[in-house]
Write a structure and sequence with these properties.
Layout lengths: L7 H12 L4 H8 L3 H14 L3 H4 L4 H9 L8 H16 L7 H11 L6 H12 L15 E6 L5 E3 L6 E3 L1 E7 L4 E7 L4 H15 L5 E4 L6 E3 L6 E2 L1 H9 L3 E2 L11 H15 L10 H17 L9 H8 L16 E7 L5 E4 L4 E4 L8 E6 L3 E6 L2 E7 L7 E2 L7 H4 L6 H9 L3 H13 L7 H13 L2 H13 L5 H9 L8 H4 L11 H9 L1
Parallel strand pairs: 1-6, 6-9, 12-16
Antiparallel strand pairs: 1-4, 2-3, 4-5, 7-8, 10-13, 11-12, 13-14, 14-15
Helix pairs in contact: 1-3, 2-3, 6-8, 11-12, 15-16, 15-17, 16-18, 18-19
């Protein structure tokens, strides 16, 4: 086809419509060209493997040359020479700052009469087509790590019953090099998902800039095409390692094609060879998996004289961030926690109370907690930190969080209150002991004790001692009750039993009656 038989705009339209999966008959009607002619161009398009995206960048002459190339390229010495160099050229692709333009210029320095830039790129694309490497070249080295779970995981077998139990298969891949990591986990829980991602970093010896998970619940609490809501703990994990979590778009399979390809390799190269073996523990299963994993990453990829590991070490490993000195400690979050009027929050998991500075009473805070620590944040500023106490219904209070009036109470003990009361009188000491005893925790009685003892200033020691006697007779143990006795001057009255005069009645037996009965 030395010259185009139809207008070039119609040839371009044939390429575009072919990629839209229209039939030759429909293309013929749309373009206004007979079906045999359409069929000829379709065959040339398929043979040259030219795409519509490439056609948009090609001139008319370049497009004609591309469509005709298959008929004469096999005998071209330029093609023979370039194909000898393609393995080395493709090895260089993907390295940081390495471009096709730069590689072509180096090629032209050695072969001044070689292919043009367009043809050079075409031969590279042809060489990479249907290979394992071609899908990796558009990813920046060291930038991303894809993570997911396999859909058909392996099983563990009970040693006693022999019954199988499904576990999960975590898979990750560095897209630029194709380096794969995988392990079996008990579940797809947040803990196991973080463990798998963290082990991926350890296997690679560094951290990428972006983690790209699928939209599983451990990573994404609310999928959205534009603003997905990331699990706070998984996001915190990413921050700790200095990377960001950007999920793959839901219902966009191309976003995770590399991870799907890695899962397929895990099936064929790792799980298939282990299909007839039985494992009863995760450790035993993972030991076998990791042996085959190293073999997979160390074997040469199809059509290339290098492995995933070699390519990773060459183009990705130098660009990864270093691992931190300590592993991530699992941190969970509770949002929208109210600070009570007593400047404490209620920590639901342990049913325990923790203090914050009293100035933040009645505000809404966020709680971050680990196995041993509790942190409380107000508008992303940490306002309190405590060692975790799992004792239910108890208070953990930092003295500096208390207002000055309350802070005084922390200096008091039951013994100190009893000693003060004893200095006034035995009835008051008995009353203070009863007040302390009536509370579940002694500290809860301190304010009542302090209030009762302070009544001496307004009234006298004698009156407070008399009021304490009356309160002890009636088992009263509150500040309000003692103050009421004093306010109403009840401490000056005799006991109620002595004031009541019983009426005379034939059915009421007096003391004489009971005295006679005792002498019988």
């Amino acid at each position: 086809m030395p010259k185009a038989r139809i207008a070039m705009n119609k040839i371009r339209e044939i390429v575009r419509l072919k990629e839209s999966n229209l039939s030759k008959r429909m293309i013929s009607r749309a373009v206004g060209v007979s079906r045999p002619v359409v069929g000829t161009y379709v065959e040339q398009v398929e043979a040259s493997r030219v795409t519509w995206e490439e056609v948009k960048e090609l001139t008319d002459d370049q497009l004609i040359e591309r469509l005709q190339q298959r008929t004469h390229e096999s005998d071209d010495p330029r093609s023979i020479e370039l194909h000898k160099q393609l393995p080395a050229i493709c090895r260089e692709l993907g390295q940081k700052y390495t471009t096709r333009q730069g590689l072509w210029e180096e090629y032209m320095q050695k072969h001044p009469k070689g292919y043009s830039y367009t043809q050079f790129c075409y031969h590279i694309q042809q060489y990479l087509s249907d290979s394992e490497l071609s899908m990796h070249l558009h990813h920046e080295p060291g930038r991303k790590l894809f993570v997911d779970y396999a859909g058909d995981p392996p099983s563990l077998y009970d040693e006693k019953t022999g019954l199988p139990r499904k576990v999960e298969q975590f898979v990750s891949v560095f897209p630029a090099s194709g380096l794969i990591y995988t392990e079996a986990t008990e579940s797809q829980s947040l803990e196991d998902f973080i463990q798998g991602t963290e082990h991926s970093f350890g296997y690679a010896g560094g951290v990428p800039k972006i983690i790209t998970p699928d939209n599983l619940k451990a990573a994404v609490t609310k999928p959205d095409p534009y603003e997905p809501k990331i699990n706070q703990t998984y996001e915190d994990f990413g921050h700790y390692y200095g990377c960001v979590v950007i999920p793959a778009r839901s219902k966009k399979p191309k976003d995770k094609a590399l991870c799907e390809a890695a899962v397929s390799l895990v099936y064929t190269r790792i799980l298939a060879p282990l299909r007839n073996k039985r494992f009863s523990t995760l450790d035993a299963l993972n030991t076998a998996i990791w042996e085959l994993l190293d073999t997979l990453n160390d074997r040469n990829m199809k059509k290339f004289n290098f492995s995933r590991r070699e390519r990773f070490d060459l183009i990705e490993a130098p660009l990864l961030s270093p691992l931190p000195s300590r592993r991530y400690v699992m941190r969970r979050f509770i949002t929208k926690v109210s600070v009570h009027i007593n400047y404490h929050i209620y920590f639901t998991p342990d049913k325990h109370y923790y203090s914050v500075p009293y100035q933040h009473r009645r505000k809404e805070v966020r709680v971050s907690y680990t196995k041993n620590e509790i942190e409380i944040y107000l508008k992303n500023t940490r306002i309190a930190a405590h060692h975790r106490d799992r004792t239910p219904h108890q208070y953990t209070t930092t003295p500096s969080h208390m207002p000055s009036a309350h802070r005084i109470l922390t200096e008091w003990t039951p013994q100190r209150f009893l000693k003060w009361a004893e200095s006034i009188g035995p009835e008051l000491k008995e009353l203070i002991a009863a007040v302390i005893e009536s509370r579940e925790v002694p500290e809860q009685a301190f304010k009542s004790c302090l209030g009762i003892l302070s009544l001496e200033k307004k009234f006298s020691k004698e009156r407070l001692e008399s009021a304490s006697k009356r309160a002890n007779n009636y088992h009263l143990t509150t500040y309000k009750a003692i103050k009421r006795i004093l306010d109403l001057n009840l401490d000056k009255q005799d006991d109620l039993e002595q004031l009541i005069l019983l009426p005379t009645h034939k059915n009421i037996r007096g003391a004489d009656y009971y005295a006679q009965r005792s002498n019988l």
